[in-house]
Amino acid sequence: MCGPNxxxxxxxxxQDVGTGFYGxxxxxxxxxxxxxxxxxxxxxxxxxxIPTTNTVIARFDVNPNFDIHTEIFIWLPPNSRDLxxxxxxTELVSGxxxxxDELQISTVIPLPNEINIIDPATLGGIGQCIQAGQxxxxxxxxxxxxxFLWSHITREGEHFRENFIGYNLDCNEFVACP
Length: 178
Known about the structure:
Elements: E1 7-8, E2 12-14, E3 24-26, E4 31-33, E5 40-41, E6 55-61, E7 68-75, E8 92-98, E9 104-110, E10 115-118, H1 126-131, E11 136-142, E12 148-155, E13 160-165, E14 167-168
Antiparallel strand pairs: 1-4, 2-3, 4-5, 6-11, 6-14, 7-10, 7-12, 8-9, 8-11, 12-13
């Protein structure tokens, strides 16, 4: 952290020695953190924070033939925010599964918590992607509040883990907009 409210960056590695997996790098981003409240805020310098209503995509793979599993992590401010805030978040967000060959299926994403872990294999409409043999895809939606997004993909039999930071498709006002 730089200064009392400076950018916070971290380097994180997950190591579960009980399963035999190699260490897994966790994507980290930059936010501004208030030294008094600990809340991540958006302002110039919050390079990794995605603004409210920006369209984002998160990669996933749900190929049952190779025992592949994805968890999409969506970090948002707590729902018990200051009541004076003009930002409110609903628990269900509309989104789209965009399958490999551009098949687009409407779905609903539950986001009730500060840290939400979404299993794309359980989302409505995913069966259409799987039936079409389109396992590697993206989940697209608008961020209901400012936050972070990343995907964690594992292939259990091969001890394979991979992480992808979420993609922000809009202008990030915390960095700069033309």
